[in-house]
Backbone:
């Protein structure tokens, strides 16, 4: 049987049709085939959260999802967070302003997780933020600033909605 | 850390899926949420020759609430369980246990039936289904069969599933009106696999405990049904004055009956201790939630 399949999917708004090996992970597809290297791989078994991307609006571990399973789906990665005019997403701004990153390796996963959280729960408590982020590991252990950044992003996004 | 080669098929109908699984034979594996299977492939702990990806079989994506039964199809994700108001109200122990499973991205993909099929001794779902005295619906090209959750488990990470068979649905009977339900677990960090966990359902009518269901997870085999402790409670007068003594006796019985495994996470003795403490907590919480009848 064929070891490759052709998939069609949308990544950051752009449509792709690509041939993928069936055993290839979505993470490797994004990084190696599409050269979207902003999605990082830490553990490759679902524990660290660095590779988290949005698939049809829900966060998934791209190391535990096969590229072939992304057929007919809509994917958003860290590269897709900027607006068309090149402006950072509010969460990116907030991480920047609040020192929410140190080495930056885990940051893409944290941003994607935070975006899903704030879409479901726009005004979270600090505990809810900590719980939502508990599946992402920061090797620099900069959690305090990350939580501060997400709380600030939530406030800013609520403010923006009012104006 | 890359998966080995396998043949991959993603059937669209259950019939096609079961035929594919039959043809795959001994080394065929069902891929549903993939939150256990994919790590096992990446780490080369498992190397099935065929993966049958059921994610595109829409007929398996049903969450049906009937008057006396909850039915979850094989594609129902942990996150779907948490979004269901009917489950939070009628099967609160299932919802309570599901909040303690891993993290959002894992809950978005992982399925209830997948967890039950995998039968990890530390997983919540096998123990929860057994606490409800639930049913597992198994299908193959030969037809379907239904077994109880307890019959389904066959020891650590092992079930009675035969090659060519898959779980297509699990069923949770609705507890009696006013029943108290609780799930408590202890894990080192939020979202980790539990070192020990306890599911408890208490049905109390006119101050008498008519039915008690108690299962312990994390002991090494599949879920442990604590029948000895259930017998201590069943038929007894259960009220504010008797509960402390009864729950202490049930907890002691659990510690006596479990035979916990030892691993890098915890010693056998520590797991036994936790089983006792968590049993007491689960019973106290479940009892506090009884009422109305």
Residues:
């Amino acid at each position: 049987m064929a070891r490759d399949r052709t998939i069609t999917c949308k990544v950051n708004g752009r449509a792709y049709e690509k041939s993928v090996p069936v055993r290839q992970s979505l993470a490797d597809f994004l990084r190696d085939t599409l050269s979207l290297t902003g999605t990082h791989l830490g553990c490759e078994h679902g524990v660290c959260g660095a590779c988290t991307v949005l698939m049809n609006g829900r966060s998934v571990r791209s190391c535990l999802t096969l590229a072939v399973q992304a057929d007919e789906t809509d994917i958003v990665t860290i590269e897709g967070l900027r607006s068309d005019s090149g402006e950072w997403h509010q969460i990116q701004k907030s991480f920047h302003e609040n020192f929410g990153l140190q080495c930056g390796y885990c940051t893409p996963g944290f941003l994607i997780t935070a975006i899903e959280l704030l879409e479901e729960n726009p005004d979270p408590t600090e505990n809810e933020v900590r719980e939502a982020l508990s599946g992402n590991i920061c090797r620099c252990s900069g959690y305090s600033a990350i939580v501060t950044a997400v709380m600030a992003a939530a406030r800013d996004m609520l403010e923006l909605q009012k104006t | 850390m890359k998966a080995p080669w396998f043949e991959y098929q993603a059937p669209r109908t259950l019939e096609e899926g079961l035929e594919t699984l039959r043809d795959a034979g001994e080394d065929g594996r069902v891929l549903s949420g993939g939150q256990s299977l994919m790590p096992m492939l990446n780490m080369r702990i498992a190397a099935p020759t065929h993966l049958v990806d059921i994610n595109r079989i829409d007929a398996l994506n049903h969450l049906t609430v009937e008057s006396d039964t909850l039915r979850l199809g094989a594609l129902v994700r942990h996150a779907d369980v948490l979004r269901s108001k009917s489950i939070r109200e009628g099967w609160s122990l299932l919802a309570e246990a599901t909040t303690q499973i891993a993290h959002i991205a894992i809950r978005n993909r992982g399925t209830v039936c997948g967890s039950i099929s995998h039968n990890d001794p530390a997983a919540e779902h096998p123990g929860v289904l057994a606490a409800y005295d639930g049913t597992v619906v198994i299908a193959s090209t030969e037809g379907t069969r239904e077994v109880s959750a307890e019959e389904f488990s066959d020891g650590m990470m092992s079930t009675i599933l035969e090659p060519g068979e898959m779980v297509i649905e699990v069923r949770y009977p609705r507890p009696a009106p006013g029943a108290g339900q609780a799930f408590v677990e202890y894990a080192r960090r939020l979202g980790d696999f539990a070192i020990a966990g306890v599911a408890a359902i208490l049905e109390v009518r006119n101050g008498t405990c008519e039915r008690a269901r108690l299962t312990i997870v994390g002991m090494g085999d599949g879920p442990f049904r604590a029948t000895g402790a259930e017998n201590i409670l069943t038929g007894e007068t259960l009220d504010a004055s008797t509960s402390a003594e009864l729950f202490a006796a049930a907890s002691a019985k659990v510690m006596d009956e479990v035979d916990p495994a030892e691993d890098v996470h915890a010693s056998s003795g520590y797991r036994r201790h936790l089983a006792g403490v968590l049993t007491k907590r689960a019973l106290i919480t479940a009892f506090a939630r009884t009422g109305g009848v």
Q: What stands out?
A: The two ends of chain A are 57 Å apart (CA to CA). The first helix of chain A runs from residue 26 to 33.
